[in-house]
Amino acid sequence: MSGIARTVPLEPGLYLLATPIGTARDITLRALDTLASADVIAAEDTRTARKLMEIHGIHLGDRPLIAYHDHNGPQVRPRLLRMIEEGRSVAYASEAGTPLVADPGFVLAREAIARGLPVTGAPGPSAVLAALTVAGLPSDRFLFAGFLPPAGAARRRALAEVAQVPATLIFFESPRRLSGSLRDFVEVLGADRGAAVCRELTKRFEEARRGTLAELADAYAGTPPKGEIVIVVDRDRAGASAEDMEMALEAAMETMSVKDAAAHVAKALGLPKRDVYQAALARGRK
């Protein structure tokens, strides 16, 4: 076999493969080995899977390549599960990114687990983590909220549900809805809340535009941008309580000095450094 993939023995089971979200080389060697070795390959988009295999020199041979997506799931799932029960290894590749994150693999994995079948993940590319990496916002705690509802009223209700979650918020959004969504973000979450709009991650025209929600809403008020969009929003800095501070300090001081823990918690919760440092000193004397 040409390329860098190698054939390895695979036990019967379901193998969930993360695939590139843009650059084809953003795939792990383990995922390539699994694609080269699985008895059956299922893919959200068979054209994408076939192209990825061709790029990396993996030959399909006489192995089945089966489309599995939202529209055919009820018909195809039983077939895939039966193949595993018969002793075959089935690799499932999402169209882009990590399986089960905004993709139809969840029900397949859940039903495999319910039947007592082995389920193995081969981690790799993720738009959620890629955006969090470049957004410049706290990464110690985050909530992935998926796609927001397309209608304005429903979208605002969904935002209100997570508005005070003490974590960085991450959303997927379509380019054509970005402007309207950002206006709703300003209305529900506040104009001055820090955020980043990450576009075309890992691709040639990757962009991460950072600022307040008001600034980003103004920046995208005109022509919709092109490409895949991830919105990252800072936590509510006005909502941190004394209890939040104490809990954060307790966790931070397990691995950090008093000074470093205080600085970390003050930055994460948006609290005055002096107040957090005094609380850390008091905790250290207990």
TrEMBL record:
It is an enzyme of class 2 (transferase). The keyword Transferase applies. Catalyzes the 2'-O-methylation of the ribose of cytidine 1402 (C1402) in 16S rRNA. The lineage of its organism: Bacteria, Pseudomonadati, Pseudomonadota, Alphaproteobacteria, Rhodobacterales. It catalyses: cytidine(1402) in 16S rRNA + S-adenosyl-L-methionine = 2'-O-methylcytidine(1402) in 16S rRNA + S-adenosyl-L-homocysteine + H(+). GO terms for molecular function: rRNA (cytosine-2'-O-)-methyltransferase activity. It comes from the Bacteria. GO terms for cellular component: cytoplasm. This is Ribosomal RNA small subunit methyltransferase I. Residues 14-217 form the Tetrapyrrole methylase domain.
